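Exam revision sheet. Question 4 asks you to relate a sequence to its structure. Input first:
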Amino acid sequence: MYIFLDESGDLGFNFEKNNSKYFCITLLVCHDSNTFFSFKTAIRRTLVEKLNQKKTKNKISELKGSNTTAAIKQYFYRQLEKFSHQNWGIYSIVVDKVHLYSQVNDVIEPHRLYNLLCHEIIDRVDFSFSDKHIQLIVDKCKGKRERSVFDCFLRTSLESKLPLNVSFNILHELSHNNFGLQAVDLFCYGIVRKHALNDLGWYEAFSSRIIEEVRWQPKLK
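Answer key, structure tokens:
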């Protein structure tokens, strides 16, 4: 099982300085290597056929939800659908930060909130269909200490759910080197656009693959 994790938005709460009003974490869960291969091929074809044609001088190394047109996103999805073996799903958790800020009368620690959200959405994944190896791949955008805290937090909470003969590894990789991270970035962008702007254009293309889409509410005393 391969789980790719990405986020859209930020965890700042100064809305006068253009901090995002929504924050979203999305998981792309591929249940086997054949499914992962289909994503790699679809991303690669899209880059070659639509963005890096022979006459293109400046080569583009990755697909990003924020700067990829709707037409190119749809092209990627059509390439993906050409594969008959499709064993994957999407899990997502969305935070209305303006609403959250109005409820919490204290400083919100971004790294703590991020880890809690990751735990809550990963905890919803059905691991009963996994093989003996689970890999969680996360965009390598945090510092070494933050990555260490994140890894420890998730390992402690999730390994207790897994059988002893199932290995659980966490990898932090750069998105331009990983096709799965690029794919989940596209899906995450579509989900947050739905909640922030009621934009369903790209979202509707893949919405049938969403297993869980959670509007998060904090637990308060």
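Marking note for examiners. The chain is about 40% helix and 20% strand.
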